[in-house]
Structure formats: C-alpha cells, structure tokens
C-alpha cells in the first residue's frame, strides 16, 4: 500500500505527460506479474499438494521395486528329533536376455560356468529376447552359482531358492512325499501340511537403477514368516528296520510289492509306514508313478483271514459265543453252502471259537458269521473302520469298500466272515487291530507326534482282552504263525492268505500274504501289519512270508522303544528255558506252521 | 511486546534449525542402522544355511543303515546271545 501512495505522481506532472501514464503502466505490469506468480503458485500447489500422491507414485515406480524375501520351508523331524526333510538354500540363475545378447561374446564363458551348451543357450536367449526374466538354471549349489555371478556378465542375476533334501531317502519316501521345484508339497505329508510348512515370503522395497541392479535396500514391507517345523510320529529307526526287513522279504519271495504299518496302540500314532517298491525323493525324475504310491493307504486288498478277529468281536458281543463255546463242527474241512465250497486246508474236526482263530478255519468262520445277526455283524465291521477313510488326513487315502449290511445275501455274509467281498487298506487293518489292542478304543491314526487324536470305544474292554488271548494262540503250538514269535514277548496276531482278485474272478496262483499282530500281548504297546503282495517263490502263506518280517521288525522295535519283556522263559512250549534271570533264546522256532487256507473264490 | 515477539521468533528459528539438523541426523542414523541390520540379517542367513547343512550332514551320518554297517563291520558288534543277557529286577 505504501508503494502505491508514493508512486502517485504529483498533480502538475499530469499535464506534461503524453500517452499512457506511468501509473497505468505500473498497474498492468504488476497485474501481469501477479497473475503469473499466482499461476505458478497454483501450479505448484497442484503438483505438490493436490496431485502429490500420483506424482510420487510415478516417481517411485521408476526406481523403487518390491522384492520378495524368500523363506525356507520348515524342517520335518521324526519323533526323536532326527531331521527327515531339510530345506537348504540353492541359487537359481536368471537373465535379462536382451542385455546378455548385447554382450554375446561372453556367452561361451557363461555357458561353460552354467554347464550347458553355448549355442543352445544363445538360441534360447534369442527366442525369449522380448522378455525380461528367463531362468538359466535352477537350484544350483551356492558355490557354483557364485562362480557364475562372479563372471560379472551384465544381465545375469542370482536368486535364492530352497531345495528339499531327504536324508533317509527312499526309506521315508512315501510318508513324506516330495515338493516341486517351487518348494510346494506335491504328495504325502509335504502336501497335507503344505500350509504349515511353507511359511510366507516377506517383501522389501529396494532402489534399482535403470539396469535393474539393486542399489539400496530402503525398507522392509512385510516381515518374512519362515515355515514352521513339523515333528512326526514316525520313528526313523523303526522305519528303517521295517524297510530293510521288508526289502529282504520281497527279494527272497520275489513279491510284487509289500507294505508294513506299525502303530502305537495307546495313541494311534503311526510309528512306521513302509512300502515297496519305493523311489528316491531326492531324484524323483526317474521314478514311475507305481513306485511313488503309498500302497499302505491308497491300495486296497481283501483282508482274508486277518478279518477273523473282527468277526469274533461281533460274535463275542452278540452273547451267543464265548472263547470256548459253542463247539463248531468243521468236520470234513468242507462246507457246501448254497452251492459254494467253503473249505479248509485240513480237516480240523470240532473247534472252539478260539480254535477257529488258531487254525484259521474258514468253515468255522463261515458258520459263526451265519449264526450272527446281519446288522450286528455289519455294524461291527463298520465300527472297526472298514469302508470308511481313517481320517488320518493323508492325501489320497482310500476308504476301502464294504457293502451295506441289508444288501448282504446269505452266501456273501458267510464269505465276509473270512474276509472276502470287502476291501481294506493296510492302515485300516492296522487300526482295527490297534483298537483291539487298546481295550476296544479306536484312535484316529495320525502322523503327528503328540496330536490329540479323537478316540472312541468300539467294543468292551473285556471282549478286547478275550480277543487278544484268542489271538495269542495263533503263535502258539499247532498254529498258523509260529514264525511270528518274538523272544521274551508274547505275541497276539492273525495270519491271512488271500487269493488276489483279478479280472473275471480270483487268480488261482497269486496271493496276498498278510500278518497282523499285537505286542506285547499282555500289555499291548505296538501293532504291526505286514502285507506281501504276490510272493512267487518259496511260499505264499501269511505265516511263512509275512510273519517272520513281523517278528524281526517288531522285536527290534520293542527293543528300541524299551518295552519290558512280558514272557521271560515262557517263550513257546518246547523252547529252551534259561536259568533264573536269563532270557529265552532267540533261535528261530523250528516248528512248521500249518497251512492257512486261501479260498479259491470269494464273492459268488 | 517487541522483545517477546523477537524472542519467540529466535526460539522458533532455533527450533526449526534443530529439527532440520535432527532430520538429517536421524536419516543418517537410520541409514547406518539399516546397513548394519542388513549385514546382520545376511549373517543370520549364512548361519542358518550353515546350520541346515550341518543338520543334513548329521542326519546323513546318523542314518540307521550306516550305523548298522559301522557297528557290525567296523566295530564287530553283535546282538547279545541269550545266555549273555542278565535280567535285573
């Protein structure tokens, strides 16, 4: 305001002034300048305040990048803390093709460091020159990758990734499964617990130059969440023992495949699960799908005679049967029932219900089945888990097959009594035996140590104990499985030899040899089931093929788990008795088992 | 009045200067700490890598098959015979 007052020209000046007055000129100039200044301020305000976000984002987008922070997958431990699956860091080399092609005189050098053909590498890069990111080689050892990066070729970058290693290799292959190249579970527990194991990669913001090189880390956007560890119920030592014994047996009897499952009777935890044939999870490329199947859970078999204890559970709970009565007449070893020849390998004459188990009489089992109420029998089979998935949470678990009870025809019912006409998995069979072992309480089998498994009382503890005593006779004198005996321990179990179903009926010359058992019989701790599929050489009886495997593996497992012996000096009748304080010998029993009859036809 | 406003101006000036210096200082500090943090992180990663390797190595050495072979062949160990076992009550 002051300026204007001073700028006022004196009165007399007006007269002399010609043209536009100085004052008017001032007003125009100041006005124009003011307008320009206001425009600039407005523009600055627009840029700095109103559209700041937009321009900031545009600027950042030109040099700030979010980069993932890789995290490692959790380690899988066995129940004693031994690692079964470990992720170790590896480097993947990637390239920006156009940048590398600009320096193509260095490609031979690069190809040599990567261990690939130079011409191939060049054509590969040329094909993908419109892209900015091409993997050159994935999962290299950190040292080899560093050697490549040290060449300092523009456009070549390294990225840390993780690769899974399985120290136990093929021994634990089926249980653990494997991961793909992006470190995600594809099969087995790696798949079932993928979310738990994999963790979440973090993100950091970095400043990059025009060439894409990281200049500086700015801040962490998201903290990386490393994968959590998993402790399995598997015991690596028992797993290995089962694997090596099963492998010897498959070789000795030239079997097609074999499975073994060991459960902790008190908790339902899976201590070992082995299948043959197997594969090396550290190099899955060469393996066939048939090798990768976890047969103990995905394949079904007809249980044959191993079902008889379950039938007996139904018989005992019906009240019509006790372990000793009534006497069942199996004289002749044949029972022509509705035109079907149910037969035993020998004529066992009169048998008690316990005798039916001891001798594994099919005729006896069929008689018992026909005496039972269909609903009770069906409900018992069902309660023992047949025809239902065990809910173990393992991917691809088969539910098996059991026809609904009211659809059973009489002949079908008789045949179901000795284990044909239904399909079960090895795990289901093991779980059924574990139920008997734990006083009739069924646990959901689990692979995780200390998990709270839902339990359910299926049959009364009294009946369960009676069943174990009946099954103890299976390894006693004149039984089907003396070879299942374990020195100093009482063994309860049951053999099973079943014809394999094939297209158009049952194959006369291929069998599955099974043995399911409980140790120690007086205070059950472990349940083991061995199934050997199609043994072609030597023998095909469950008592000859599978029972010895059971004996050796379970004997070792009992020792490893420090289970006190319950049968010192009372090993088997006729066996050597040691002096006071001594233990019974561990010589193999010389007794030959009686045949456990496979039945030629199952369902009519 | 004049004195008070002059003092206030000076105080504000000093405060503004101090805050500006503070910004510079903390910025520098954060850079230094970030560099330190990053290097510690790298160190941790390296240690984790080393740990994983050792874990794997240990698992390989503790492989039951290897222990079995070593015990039986190198050390000549055997399963005890029944008459060699004494049971303590």
Task: Give a summary of the structure in a few sentences.
The complex is a heterodimer of chains A (604) and B (89). Chain A is of the alpha+beta class.
Task: Characterise this structure.
The complex is a heterodimer of chains A (604) and B (89). Chain A is of the alpha+beta class. Chain A folds into two domains: 67-231, Penicillin-binding protein 2a (Domain 2); 236-560, Beta-lactamase (3-Layer(aba) Sandwich), CATH 3.40.710.10. Helices cover 35% and strands 20% of the residues of chain A. In chain A, the strands form six sheets. In chain A, strands 2, 3, 4, 5 and 8 form a five-stranded mixed sheet that branches. Chain A has a five-stranded antiparallel sheet with strand order 10-9-19-18-17, sandwiched between helices. In chain A, strands 1-6-7 form a three-stranded antiparallel sheet. In chain A, a hairpin with a 5-residue loop joins strand 2 (76-77) and strand 3. In chain A, helix 6 crosses helix 7 and helix 12 packs antiparallel against helix 22. Chain A is elongated and about 145 Å long. Mean pLDDT of chain A is 84; it is low at 571-589 and 599-604. Chain B has 89 residues and is mainly alpha-helical. Chain B has one domain (2-78). Chain B contains two helices and no strands. Chain B has helices spanning 2-61, 64-74. The longest helix of chain B has 60 residues, at 2-61. Chain B is rod-shaped and about 110 Å long. The model of chain B has no long low-confidence stretch (mean pLDDT 86). At the A-B interface, strand 3 and helix 12 of A face helix 1 of B.
């Amino acid at each position: 305001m002051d300026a204007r007052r001073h700028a006022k020209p004196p009165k007399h000046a007006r007269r002399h002034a010609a043209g536009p007055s100085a004052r008017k000129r001032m007003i125009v100039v100041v006005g124009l300048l003011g307008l320009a200044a206001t425009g600039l301020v407005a523009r600055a305000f627009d840029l700095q305040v109103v559209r700041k976000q937009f321009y900031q984002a545009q600027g950042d987008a030109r040099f700030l990048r979010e980069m993932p922070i890789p995290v490692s997958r959790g380690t899988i431990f066995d129940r004693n803390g031994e690692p079964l699956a470990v992720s170790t860091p590896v480097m993947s080399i990637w390239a920006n093709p156009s940048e590398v092609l600009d320096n193509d005189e260095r490609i031979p050098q690069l190809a040599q460091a990567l261990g690939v053909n130079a011409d191939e590498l060049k054509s590969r890069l040329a094909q993908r020159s419109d892209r900015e990111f091409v993997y050159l080689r994935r999962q290299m050892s950190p040292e080899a990758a560093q050697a490549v990066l040290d060449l300092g070729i523009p456009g070549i970058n390294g990225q840390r990734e993780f690769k899974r290693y399985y120290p136990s290799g093929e021994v634990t292959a089926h249980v653990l499964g494997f991961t793909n190249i992006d470190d995600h579970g594809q099969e087995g527990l790696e798949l079932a617990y993928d979310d738990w194991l994999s963790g979440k990669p973090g993100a950091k913001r970095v400043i990059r130059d025009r060439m894409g090189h990281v200049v500086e880390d700015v801040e962490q956007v998201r903290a990386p969440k490393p994968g959590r560890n998993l402790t399995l119920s598997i015991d690596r030592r028992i797993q290995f023992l089962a694997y090596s014994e099963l492998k010897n047996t498959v070789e000795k009897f030239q079997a097609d495949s074999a499975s073994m499952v060991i459960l902790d009777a008190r908790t339902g935890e899976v201590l070992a699960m082995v299948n043959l044939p197997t594969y090396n999870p550290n190099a899955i490329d060469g393996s066939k799908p048939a090798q990768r199947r976890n047969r103990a859970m995905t394949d079904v078999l007809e249980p044959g005679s191993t079902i008889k204890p379950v039938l007996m559970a139904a018989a005992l709970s019906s009240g019509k049967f006790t372990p000793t009565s009534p006497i069942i007449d199996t004289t002749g070893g044949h029972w022509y029932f509705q035109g079907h020849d149910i037969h035993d390998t020998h004529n066992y004459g009169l048998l008690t219900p316990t005798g039916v188990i001891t001798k594994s009489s099919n005729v006896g089992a069929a008689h018992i089945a026909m005496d039972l109420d269909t609903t009770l029998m069906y409900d018992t089979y069902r309660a023992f888990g047949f025809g239902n998935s065990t809910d173990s949470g393992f991917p691809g678990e088969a539910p098996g097959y059991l026809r609904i009870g009211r659809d059973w025809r009489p002949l079908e019912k008789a045949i179901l009594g000795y284990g044909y006409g239904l399909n079960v998995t090895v795990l289901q069979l093991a779980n059924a035996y574990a139920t008997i072992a734990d006083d009739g309480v069924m646990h959901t089998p689990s692979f995780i140590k200390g998990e709270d498994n839902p339990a359910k009382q299926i049959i009364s503890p009294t009946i369960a104990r009676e069943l174990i005593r009946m099954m103890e006779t299976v390894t006693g004198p004149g039984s089907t499985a003396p070879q299942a005996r374990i020195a100093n321990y009482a063994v309860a179990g049951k053999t099973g030899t079943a014809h394999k179903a094939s297209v158009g009926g049952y194959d006369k010359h291929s069998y599955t040899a099974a043995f399911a058992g409980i140790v120690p019989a007086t205070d059950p701790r472990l349940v083991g089931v061995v199934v050997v599929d199609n043994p072609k050489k030597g023998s095909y009886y469950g008592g000859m093929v599978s029972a010895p495997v059971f004996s050796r593996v379970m004997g070792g497992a009992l020792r490893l788990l420090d289970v006190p012996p319950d049968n010192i000096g009372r090993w088997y009748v006729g066996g050597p008795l040691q002096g006071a304080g001594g233990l019974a010998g561990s010589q193999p029993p010389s007794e030959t088992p009686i045949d456990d009859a496979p039945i030629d036809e199952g369902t009519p | 009045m004049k004195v008070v406003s002059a003092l206030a101006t000076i105080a504000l000036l000093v405060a503004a200067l101090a805050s500006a210096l503070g910004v510079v200082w903390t910025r520098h500090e954060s850079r230094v700490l970030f560099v330190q943090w990053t290097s510690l992180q790298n160190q941790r990663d390296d240690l984790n890598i080393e740990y994983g390797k050792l874990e794997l190595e240990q698992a390989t050495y503790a492989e039951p098959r290897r222990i079995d072979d070593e015990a039986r062949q190198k050390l000549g160990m055997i399963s005890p015979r029944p008459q060699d076992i004494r049971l303590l009550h």
